[in-house]
Amino acid sequence: MAKKFGISTLLRNKLISDDTLNGLISNKVYPIVAPEGTEGNYVIYYRDRYSRDRTKVGIMDTADVVFAVISDDYDTSQLIAETIDNVLDGYHSGIGTVYLKDSTEDLIDKKYTQILIYSIF
């Protein structure tokens, strides 16, 4: 896995380079919190965990990165989440293997929110 503490930024770069996703969120992918007054569809991300496990065969670094899709429209929130999954799930050179560990949805402050938790190793 690349860049221990900066792994979330590498994943953000993958997302903002995807034309389909940019058509939905206009490059609005923010670390930890969106700027005050942000409107429309956007994504917040943060590294939830970074750990180093020592095993009999060596050291394995693992990170969890959370993406929160925020939208005024439920169907759009699901479409953005699906697009993020299409971009991130799998092996990426320079990053490692990324897979969807868990997901949920919620209504927060009258906004539809899709939460995607990815593990990277």
In short:
This protein is of the alpha+beta class. It has helices at 7-16, 19-25, 74-88; strands at 29-31, 42-55, 58-71, 90-92, 96-108, 111-120. It has a single domain, classed as Phage tail protein-like (STM4215-like), CATH 3.30.2000.
Q: Can you walk through the features of this model?
A:
This protein starts with 6 loop residues before the first helix and ends with a strand. The protein contains 3 helices and 6 strands. Helix content is 26%, strand content 47%. Strands 1-2-3-6-5-4 form a 6-stranded mixed sheet. A hairpin with a 3-residue loop joins β4 and β5. It has one domain: STM4215-like, CATH 3.30.2000.10. It is α+β, with helices and mostly antiparallel strands.
Strand order of the largest sheet: 1-2-3-6-5-4
- Structural domains: how many: 1
Name of the CATH architecture: 2-Layer Sandwich
Describe the biggest sheet?
Answer: 6 strands, mixed
The number of helical segments is 3
The class by helix and strand makeup works out as: alpha+beta
Task: Give the distance, in angstroms, between the N- and C-terminal Cα atoms.
Answer: 5 Å
**Which band does the percent of strand residues land in?**
over 45%
Helix content bin: 25-40%
The name of the CATH topology is STM4215-like
CATH class: Alpha Beta
Number of strands: 6
Per CATH, the superfamily is Phage tail protein-like
Overall pLDDT level: 92
Radius of gyration: 15 Å
Keywords:
single chain, 121 residues, alpha+beta, STM4215-like, six-stranded mixed beta sheet, 3 helices, 6 strands
